[in-house]
Amino acid sequence: MFSLSLKKNLYSLICCMCLLLTLSLKAQEQLEIHHINVENGDATMILIHNTAVDTFPASVLIDGGMKDSYAFLNNYFKHCFKDTMPVAHFKYAILSHHHQDHYTGFKSLGDSAFIQVDTIIDVGGYKFSSAYAAIAPPDTIAAALKRGGDKPTIKRVYMKALKTAYDKSLLKSRSKVITSFPRDIGKSITIGTVNGIPVTLTCVAAAAYTYTRNGDSLFCGISRENNPNDYSLGFVLRYGEFRYFTGGDLGGENGPKFTDQETTLVGGLDTLLHELSYSFDATATRDSVTGHICAFKVSHHGSDHSTNPAFLKIRPAVAIVSAGNQKNWALPNPAFQQRLDTTWKPLSSRADGTRPFGVSDRGLYITNLYNFKRYGTERDSCLKYAVQLFAGRTDTEFHYGNDYDPAGVATGAMTGSSEDPTCKDSYILIVEPNNITTQSIFYLYMTNFWKGVIMSPIGNYKCHRNAR
């Protein structure tokens, strides 16, 4: 919504508008990452946007949220793609793992008025029609057969949607590149190009295998409960010097419900992103950090079981959390928030006096924040704790997407927590294409099509440049 610091917010507004004007004058295409607020679950859209003619040469949808996500997605797609038929056409649709808050939003995949997909990518672990591209367990481990999670539901919802879409020619194929694990860990697909520079997705985690420092894959094991989170697909998006990570509900600790894949993955990212990434401005400490990620979607909605201290060594500038109103989950967990506060050190950390005009070192964007009462006590005060830790800080931009009062009016004071479906802001990350091969500059915008708010600038980041 709006920062508590009016001056800081004004700086960001001016800088974003000026930089966006520069972008529009020099380049016709841009990379956008839309974090769609679907209340519960995940739904992320990657777009290559030709701004000159307002078309989208390539698009990717990662996850579809829960069963109630249709209204959110349909509204978002219609406004974004201008009522084309079908409403949305994706080059790739990716299901990170087989949990209902990620796949049930795909139940309308076979609706000819809603969505069309060229290629589907998922973790497999189930059998399908012989007419469809082979989707078989990628290994002989018996536990792999269970990676479908709630089998009756995934068969009734996700697999049915795939078959319906395939029969109607609304789904063409399954990926032939990222389809078998561990064989395909480390492989990449090209989404398209932005002004001639390729945009790629590299698979770095899948089916409990994780990319390692040796450039190969390691089986990290399966939790005792054989949680579908263990099988999450993880990808690094690369566009010049910009790098973004998304990993479904990937775990960062060993326990009955999780396995620690993040610690191994950090070494893999060191190998994959071997270029030295120096802090952006010369007044900051020039750490030669490898494996640096500019921004990431926080795994598992900000639970205490993911985003461990080792993983935060990737030193991102921006973290985006997709959380909702599920009381049993009570996310983002206060312990996760505390870990962010104490161990999150962006690559370009600066003293207040040396920070460029209107630029933040780090940004935390959460789709929804609530205070959850358990057993008659306010044990998990997620909203109160987040505001206490991150609001009003000079080095951090902090926003959440349901800061509306009961009347549906934005509070601007970080006191609201509306469950109204129209009071749901989404966050769009746009990468500056100019000089993208030598630097990483990007902006965050808030949008709420229900409220008529389109592309309101809220953050400006100069992450690093690959030069001494």
TrEMBL record:
It comes from the Bacteria. InterPro entries: Competence_DNA_uptake, RibonucZ/Hydroxyglut_hydro. Residues 1-27 form the signal peptide. The keyword Cell inner membrane does not apply. Keywords: Hydrolase, Signal. GO terms for molecular function: hydrolase activity. This is Beta-lactamase superfamily II metal-dependent hydrolase. It comes from Chitinophaga niastensis. The lineage of its organism: Bacteria, Pseudomonadati, Bacteroidota, Chitinophagia, Chitinophagales.
